[in-house]
Amino acid sequence: AQSVSQHNHHVILSEAASLELGCNYSYGGTVNLFWYVQYPGQHLQLLLKYFSGDPLVKGIKGFEAEFIKSKFSFNLRKPSVQWSDTAEYFCAVNYGGSQGNLIFGKGTKLSVKP
Amino acid sequence: SQTIHQWPATLVQPVGSPLSLECTVEGTSNPNLYWYRQAAGRGLQLLFYSVGIGQISSEVPQNLSASRPQDRQFILSSKKLLLSDSGFYLCAWSSSGRLGNTIYFGEGSWLTVV
Prior knowledge:
The complex is a heterodimer. Chain A contains no helices and twelve strands. Chain A is an all-beta fold. In chain A, strand 7 and strand 8 form a beta hairpin. The N and C termini of chain A lie far apart (41 Å). Chain B contains no helices and eleven strands. The termini of chain B are far apart. At the A-B interface, strand 5, strand 6 and strand 10 of A face strand 5 of B.
């Protein structure tokens, strides 16, 4: 069955620490990959996406993610987090490319201590 | 435990026909409810959200409408479908209160307008 796993339910970091949030998906052929973020008091918004090409994708606010096909992973990274990065982060996978179902992970809550 | 169901899972409709996608949540009361759409090749877009019965906020002007006739029921409708309405529609809920609470997604509905 198609599934997306986010390994960490809650991550707590101090400002300036480096961040890596894990995302793994079950095998399903062609995939499009997304990271979404929901800041406190706001709606979900797109952070970055991978459709094809360079597997290292850069998104907004200094975030990046690397698609490693052999590991079925799409981990989110940021070299130095800020307090304003406190939010919940969702990984999502579009199985079958753009015409496939969109499956979300359960989310990882990130708390950044000032 | 809380569950969310949406149906139908797939739908093929001719241009100009009406649409009704239904979503229900169980195991919680007074949830915030959402309808999102993912068009081919794009990320997720918030269409409507509701914080209570009869209270609907529209994020994007379009051919669609939403209604919340009961506390845990959220319906996405259209009187006359357009080709551009094709896409993957996701219902979601979060616990009542401020925006930013963890969001939980349904299985999704694929709409193809022909």
